[in-house]
Amino acid sequence: MVFTIIIAFISLMGLIILHELGHFLLAKRFGVKIEEFGIGYPPRIYGKKFGETLYSINLLPFGAFVKMPGEIEHSDDPNSFFKKPIWQRSLIVFGGALSFWIVSVILLSIVFSFGTPIAISDEENGNLINPKVQIAAVAPNSPAEKAGIRPGDSITELKIKNKNLISDKNLDSRSAQNEKLKIDKVKQVQEFTDVHKGEEIILTVERGKDIFNVSLVPRVSPPAGEGAMGIGLVRTAIKSYTWYLAPWQGIKTTFTLTVEVIKGWDQALGNVITRQPSGVQMMGPVGIFHLFTQASQLGINYFLQFIALISIYIALFNILPIPAADGGKLLFLGIEAIKRRPINQKIEQNVTSVFFLALVALAIWITIKDIIRIF
Fold it and tell me: Domain 119-239 carries which CATH code?
């Protein structure tokens, strides 16, 4: 468990460092003076200066930073961030989010080159490698969630608790003789669950290298849009690509996931406006870290895919036009481009400070909810 936590922490810190590296590399490319590139936040533990830049390791391991003159306050230094053209400043700011998308492409390319589960239909047969039925989603407060089932788990067998499956006419004779129903198609789970609503059933679940049983009672009258167990299912099989096709698959999948995340946010926002359940659960640092530890237990392929997905989520959030995020800085630069003069420094700092405090308050509130939910 300790090793899992360490891996999750290093992965999350790695994403943050790469985000700041995106700002750093583009700033260097456009000749902006970099005063310091720091891993963690002060107080400083160690620092070494190369050229004009101090590279530091700091005590508080909760992020990273790039310090440039003219980024917060106006500066007359010709090599400051403030003195660069708007298009260059915009690219430097956008570089942080861009790094997340690049990370996603690289990780997915690695996954596709070594082989990864892809969604297939129940009808697809032939030369399939390790076909299985996986949990794609778990509804809040559903029997599946209460039983401890998580997204990414696989259902390998189903049976009725304390009953002989021979009495079930819907099962084939071979499964009946074994008193178990071997699962490799979504339809099998759906039909079995439909027949045994209201009865206690046992699922054999595969999670990474672990295989265990959980019991639950499928609901007779589940909420609209949810199944009796409260899970979304997908049939998968292993597929790999040659080294020259894997990067293209990584690019396509990153684009597809980005579009799907935007669609999900749009639908959730629409539901909030119309006062319908949004189906979205906000998470803070604790919740995200908890997901990292869970994903790391499912195997390297799933873990890399999870990091890629988280990278896309953070990239999109980062470019939202919210002051205190990179998207807010891009918004101010857009206003400056339209007005053809810099925004009043005091106004920009005050607006950014107000939104920063609001984000901190929101993060604290979400973190408290995460702790209550997880622990």
Answer: 2.30.42.10
Q: Average pLDDT, stretch 151-174?
A: 66
Tens of pLDDT, residues 172-195 = 433 343 457 899 999 999 999 999
Q: Does the pLDDT at position 280 exceed 70?
A: no
What secondary structure, in 3-state letters, does the chain show? CHHHHHHHHHHHHHHHHHHHHHHHHHHHHCCCCCCEEEEEEEEEEEEEEECCEEEEEEEEEEEEEEECCCCCCCCCCCCCCCCCCHHHHHHHHHHHHHHHHHHHHHHHHHHHHHCEEEEECCCCCCCCEEEEEEEEEECCCCHHHHCCCCCCCEEEEEEECCCCHHHCCCCCHHHHHHCCEECCCHHHHHHHHHHCCCCCEEEEEEECCEEEEEEECCCCCCCCCCCCCCEEEEEEEEECCCCCCHHHHHHHHHHHHHHHHHHHHHHHHHHHHCCCCCCCCCCCHHHHHHHHHHHHCCCHHHHHHHHHHHHHHHHHHHCCCCCCCHHHHHHHHHHHHHHCCCCCHHHHHHHHHHHHHHHHHHHHHHHHHHHHHHC
pLDDT tens per residue across span 50-80 = 999 999 999 988 889 999 998 888 888 899 9
